[in-house]
Structure formats: C-alpha cells, structure tokens
Amino acid sequence: MQAQTKKATLNPALRKFWTSPARNRVLHGGRASSKSWDAAGFAVFLTNTYKIRFLCARQFQNKIAESVYSLLKVQIERFGLQHRFDIQRDKIINVATGSEFLFYGLWRSIDEIKSMEGIDVCWIEEAHNLTEEQWEILNPTLRKSGSQFWIIFNPRLSTDFVYRRFVTNPPPKTVVRQINYVENPFLSDTMLEIIESAKAEDYDSYEHVYLGVPRDDDDDSIIKRSWIMAAIDAHKVLGFAPRGVKRVGFDVADSGADKCANVYAHGSVVEWADEWKAGEDELLKSCKRTYNVAKEREAAVTYDSIGVGASVGAKFAEINEARRNEGETFLVRYSKFNAGGAVYEPDRNYQPGIKNSDMFSNIKAQAWWLVADRFRNTFNAVRNGETYSDDQLISISSETPYLERLIDELSTPKRDYDQNGRVKVESKKDLAKPNREGGPVPSPNLADAFVMCFPPDAGSLDVWTKLAQ
Question: 288: helix, coil or strand?
C-alpha cells in the first residue's frame, strides 16, 4: 500500500465506534493508527450534514498550528468541500449548515470554556495530559442534550488520570476503542518498514509506541511527570512573582540530529523556550542567536561547555568586545556549565549526614536533583498546601513554547549510579540505546537548557565575578 492511494474516506474499522450511542467516545492506541485523521474526517462529515458546534481542545495551545485546525483543513480539502467551509484564522465555519469549529487550550482557557454554551462535541486531542480537576469542570460544561466528548490519545502511563478514568474503569455511556497501525488501511509500505524495524530492535518500546501499551510508572525518573504538571503556572496558584536572576540556559548541539536549545527563567519562573537545528560550523550563529535573546531579556547565560560548547565562551567574548568597541554599555554576562565537572560545595550536606560529594557523581547530577527538589516542593505546595519560600519552588508559564515536549523531556531521564554508588543522570548515549527500558529517546536538549537555568552555584560571588568579565 502506498500513501498516495489514501482517499477521503473513513477507516471502516471505526464505523461502529463513531455510530454507537455514547456520551464519551474514547479512542486510544499507538502511533500511525489513524485516530486523529479519522476523527477529523468524521467531524467534517458531521458538520457538513448537521448544525454542530465543535470545541476542539488540547492541554496546551499557544498558537492555532498546535491544534487540529490543520488536520480539519486537510480533510475539508480531501472531501472537496472548500466551497462549503469558511476557514478563518482561528475558527472554521460551515456556511451551509452553520456548524463551527472552535479551538482552545485547556490549561489557559478552562474558565472561559466553563462558561461556553451550546457545545455539541468537545474533542480533546492528545488527551494523555488531561487532569482530574479539568474533567470535573468540563463534564458538566457540556450540558446540551446529546452532547459528546471525543477523547483521543496515545497512552503514556497506566497511572495517568485519563487512562485510569476512561480505559481501566470507564464511566457509564462510554465507548472505548483501542486501534493500532495494523487496522490502518492507509499506511504506506515505508511506514510499515519503519515499524517492523522498531519491532525487531526493541519489542517493549515497539509495544508502547505502536501498540499503545502504557508504561507502568515513572518511579525511576529523576523528575516525576506529576510534579511537572503541578508546576505549570504554579507562581499564579501559589502567589509568587518572577523575581531574581534572569538567566538563559544554552544547550549546544553536538552533531547529527542534535539541536541547540534556549530556555529563559526569571528567578523561579520559566517563561520561554526555543530550539533550532545548527551544525558545528554554525556555532557563532547560534551564539549570536542566544546572545540576542539574553540581551533582549537582560539576562545572563549559562552554556553547556562540553564538546562543541567549549568554544561558546570565546564566541561570547568576541561579541561583547565588538559591542564594547561600538560604544554599547550593556554586555551579556555568561558562565559555563561543565556537566561532568566537580560537585559544587562538596563538603556541604545535601541531606542530614550525606555530603554533596557522597550523593552526586558530578555537577550535572547535582543540578538535576536540585531542580527535582524544587518540582517536588511545588507539587507538595500546590496539592498538599505545604509552605516553601519562592526560591525553593519552580513554575513553568503555560505560555512557554514547546511546553509539551519540555514536559516529556524533563520527565524522561532516569537516575543512574556510578561505581561508587553516587547518583548521576542517565546519559544521552544511554537514552538513545535501542534496548533502553521504555524505549530510546532523542537528546533532551530543552530539558538540559532548562536545568542550566538553575545551576547549583547560581548564588556564589565567584560566579557573578566571572559573569561580569
């Protein structure tokens, strides 16, 4: 089967799923299974036949391109219905039936959604991040007779709320359907070859990615996903403001498919992120890009100084010198972060009776654990009402670009140990191994840049002296 044979039609395997009476339609499974494609096709069919108001939602949506807008647009074109739909900048309207598609991010707009009237279908795409609190708001919001939820996702953890609520123990009037690539009649030979290769290399990873088998837990992760979710907009929930050092973390691409990344934090609040492809011969270009970000935000830079990044300090010095000669008064301060370097304040206790030098293998491990401590404190403050000062907490603005990927990357690396029993962070090399438990993952560039916003030596006078040079 070749991709070009795909026609504007629905997957016949899902016909019963879409037509059975239900309040909740739950469609889950692995990648390449046509879940979202089929949902978009059926949604276009319904809105072209009846007057229906669709609310298309996902957890984080900072721009329309992150929604199912493009998928619906493609299906409208494939059905040849462009003349019946008015595709606007932020909504889609059927001019013949009066149907409309609205697009919202749950995290930022849940209160606005709560006051909406006349919604017939709430389609929650990539619903694995749906929280129990959000469901308690959404469920009674759809009060129109015959209204429905479409809950579509690739399972992550068996402990996630959406999996427990709608798959393990589904409520009444719920139709649950698992579908995987083996039921997708439109899959290309190339994609089938990719899947078979993944199956041969690591069956457990293949089961999770392509058969939608959820992972049991994230107990081995340094930073638990639930902690990160509790930290989204935690500064608003807990009432603390961004204040303190402004810093940009700069993770430098090594080679191949690796990417550069920036993350910006003001005090305990992360507000922005960026990622881009750049080769080793483009280091100066990447440094200028990061420099301009720091200049715009009046921030210092902490950069990865291993490998290609070893030359970053020299590049920043060149840029500062050129600006000084041009009469500029604001020069960007910078410091290096050597992930394999010595632990900061080795003789100081990390916990009672445990020195930093006995706990951590290197400064990267120390940085990750200190960030994890902040996330755990934030979780306990948000969920359990515990009290901490703002420099013991952490918050991620819901407006941060690449937010969902940042959440994934922060919750992926697992704890490891050196030969002396000290903790360390799972290496990029180990993360990429085909036989890695949980499957191979790309380099966590955004997560590394994030952690560099909170280096263990952030408050030392020595560091600020170096930054000022």
Answer: helix
Give the residue numbers spanning the domain of 359: 225-468
* C-alpha span between 193 and 237 (Å, rounded): 47
Nearest Cα neighbor of 301 from 248, 339, 263, 338 is: 248
Give the mean model confidence (pLDDT) for residues 421-444. Answer: 78
Q: Are residues 157 and 73 in the same domain?
A: yes
Task: Specify whether the CB–CB gap between 208 and 439 falls below 8 A.
Answer: yes
Is residue 334 pLDDT above 90, yes or no? yes
Q: Between 332 and 439, name the one with better pLDDT.
A: 332
Task: Mark whether 185 and 250 lie in a shared domain.
Answer: no
The number of CA neighbours under 13 Å toward the Cβ of 265 is 27
CATH number of the domain where residue 20 is located: 3.40.50.300
- Measured torsion, CA atoms of residues 104, 106, 110, 114, in degrees rounded to the nearest 10: 60
Number of domains in the chain: 2
pLDDT at 6: 42
CATH of the domain at 363: 3.30.420.240
Higher pLDDT: 185 or 44? It is 44
* Domain-located, residue 216: no
Q: Mean pLDDT over residues 113-119, rounded?
A: 92
465 — pLDDT class (breaks 50, 70, 90): very low
CB-based contacts of 270, cutoff 8 Å, min separation 6: 263, 264, 394, 395, 396, 397, 400, 450, 453
Residues 406, 450: contact at Cβ < 8 Å? yes
Residue that finishes a domain, picked among 184, 210, 236:
210
- The whole-model pTM stands at 0.70
